[in-house]
C-alpha cells in the first residue's frame, strides 16, 4: 500500500471504480460519506457491493466497463477536490501528492518535490478528459508562479499531469488557448508527464465535507473565488 490510507477506504474507492452507469456512480456518491466515518466496516463495504450488484443485474449494465483517472494540481487539494467531486461522470476524487520522486510523501512529514494534487476517477462515457481540463483551468490562477492564492511554495503551484500522448496533446492545446486568451500575461501552469500518485493522510480526504465551516472560512479568507472571478468571470465552479 502506498501510504497510511485505511484499507477499507481504498476498497471502497476501488469498488466505485469498477462500475459504470449514471445510476451507479450517483449511488457511489451517496454512499461515499460512509467511508469517512470511523464506523466504516466490511459490512458497509459488502452492503454497497450488494446494492450496486443488484442495480447492475436489474438494469443489465456492464459491471466492469472502462474508467479512467486524471491528475491535476491547483494549490490546496481540499479546494480542488470539492471543485470536481459530484460532477457528472466523476466517480471519485482523492487528495494527495504527485510530481516528485520522494516515496511515501506525507503532509505532516516530507513531500519535497511533490505538488499537492488530486486524482479524479471518472467515466469517459459521461465526461471527457477535455471537459475535465476545461474545469481545471477555471479553478486555478495560471499566472501565479509562486503557488496558488494565499498558499505559496513549490507544492502549491498549478500543473496538469497527462498520462499518455493523447492527453498531453489536449493539455498543451488547452494551455495554448489560455495563453492566447491572455496575451499580456505569462502562463506558469506546467504540463508534466504523470507519475505515481500518493494519497495524503486520511484526515485531508473530503475535508470540505468533514469540516464545512472551517473549509468555507479558509477558502474565503484565501481569496480563491474572488481571484478566480477576477480572471475568468462567471463560471460554474460549484
Notes on the structure:
This protein is globular. Strands 7-6-1-3-2-8 form a 6-stranded mixed sheet. It has helices at residues 7-17, 22-31, 42-59, 77-84, 129-137, 165-181, 207-210, 212-222, 224-232, and strands at 68-74, 90-98, 115-122, 147-148, 151-152, 158-160, 190-191, 198-199. Helix content is 41%, strand content 15%. Helix 5 packs parallel to helix 6. A hairpin with a 2-residue loop joins strand 4 and strand 5 (151-152). The protein is α+β, with helices and mostly antiparallel strands and 238 residues long. The protein has 9 helices and 8 strands.
Q: What's the overall average pLDDT, rounded?
A: 81
- The strand order across the widest sheet is 7-6-1-3-2-8
* Major sheet description: 6 strands, mixed
Order of helices and strands: HHHEHEEHEEEHEEHHH
SSE-based structural type: alpha+beta
Query: Helical region count?
Result: 9
- Estimate the helix proportion, in percent: 40-55%
Which ranges are low-confidence, i.e. pLDDT below 50, for 5 or more consecutive residues? 1-26, 58-64
Please provide a brief summary of the model:
The protein has 238 residues and is of the alpha+beta class. The chain has nine helices and eight strands.
List the keywords.
disordered N terminus, two-stranded antiparallel ribbon, alpha+beta, 238 residues, globular, 15% strand, 8 strands, six-stranded mixed beta sheet
List the helices and strands and how they pair.
Layout lengths: L6 H11 L4 H10 L10 H18 L8 E7 L2 H8 L5 E9 L16 E8 L6 H9 L9 E2 L2 E2 L5 E3 L4 H17 L8 E2 L6 E2 L7 H4 L1 H11 L1 H9 L6
Parallel strand pairs: 6-7
Antiparallel strand pairs: 1-3, 1-6, 2-3, 2-8, 4-5
Helix pairs in contact: 2-3, 5-6
